[in-house]
Amino acid sequence: MACHIDVHNTVVQRRVPRDGHAVKHIGVAVFNGFSLLDTVSIVEAFQAANRFAQDSQRDAPHYDVRLLSAAGGRIASSSDVFVWTDSVEARGYAGHFHALFIAGGTGVHDARRDERLLAWLRCAHLRSENVLPIAEGQFLLEAAGFASSAGRGSARGRVPHHHSRRDPEPATQREVSSPLESALSVIEADLGTEITCKAAACLAPRASTQFTSVLNRNISGSVSDKIGASARWLEANGDQPISIDRAAGIAAMSERNFLRRFKAEIGVTPSGYLLYVRLDMSCRLLVETALPVDKIARRCGFGGGAQLAKLFRKHMGATPTEYRGSKRQPHDC
């Protein structure tokens, strides 16, 4: 059975540019049979970059991501999930894309014979800063008269093989980076390595820590909606000063009733749960970043490195530095 999701409308609701911030338009042209996973990874990468840039760079550009198709409307992915798209000819900025991704899929073979689409692609190629094919999308570019270029250079290998208006006669190159890597390379060029690494980390599967099982209890069927909401609020705000009466307010309960219900349903007190949230955050930052221990401690709601070290020795049997050395694998960032 086919199902339908309106990815376009979801993106639009999140892409309201803030005053004074330049908008960079990102287009993803999709065809029937396109890879939903590849397309979603592109959309989520740019949305994650928007979130992190908003927090750290006052004048950072804002990415506006749109799904496009030849005629607009519903397009079926390879998994029979439908997405809603704009027509390629209906965009108000006339094809001036900061990055234009050309997705693959079985529909590309028919698209290669669509002269109107090919004419649009030739025009968009000239006006866009980067044109990046995904899988069979390369065949559509070739049908429009373009070959791909090798764009090597990043130490992390994230710079994709792509077309650029700065390369008028690119050489043919079949091998391409993954769609996510291509999106991250664009983000890195715009916003720098730190934000790119944060965006990549939030899209990657999260490794488990010894606190994961406790933190996952809030999604079990035995936890009420109110207590689950308060647990999620504690997770979302673990890096901030938190009072138990505020958490009780999230659950719309008195503090006394909240403490009793939380312990009964989650298995630990709210204070204990908050501690696990912060320790879990600390474990992840120790493994995934090169930040100093003291900075990690403060980012995770602790007073400083000394307090974090004391808690690590108590709960982990090791110092933060020892934990990092035992768990951390070589990381791009």
TrEMBL record:
<dbReference type="InterPro" id="IPR018060">
    <property type="entry name" value="HTH_AraC"/>
</dbReference>
<dbReference type="InterPro" id="IPR029062">
    <property type="entry name" value="Class_I_gatase-like"/>
</dbReference>
<keyword id="KW-0238">DNA-binding</keyword>
<dbReference type="GO" id="GO:0043565">
    <property type="term" value="F:sequence-specific DNA binding"/>
</dbReference>
<dbReference type="InterPro" id="IPR050204">
    <property type="entry name" value="AraC_XylS_family_regulators"/>
</dbReference>
<dbReference type="InterPro" id="IPR018062">
    <property type="entry name" value="HTH_AraC-typ_CS"/>
</dbReference>
<feature type="region of interest" description="Disordered">
    <location>
        <begin position="152"/>
        <end position="179"/>
    </location>
</feature>
<dbReference type="InterPro" id="IPR009057">
    <property type="entry name" value="Homeodomain-like_sf"/>
</dbReference>
<protein>
    <submittedName>
        <fullName>Transcriptional regulator containing an amidase domain and an AraC-type DNA-binding HTH domain</fullName>
    </submittedName>
</protein>
<keyword id="KW-0804">Transcription</keyword>
<dbReference type="GO" id="GO:0003700">
    <property type="term" value="F:DNA-binding transcription factor activity"/>
</dbReference>
<dbReference type="Pfam" id="PF12833">
    <property type="entry name" value="HTH_18"/>
</dbReference>
<keyword id="KW-0805">Transcription regulation</keyword>
<feature type="domain" description="HTH araC/xylS-type">
    <location>
        <begin position="228"/>
        <end position="326"/>
    </location>
</feature>
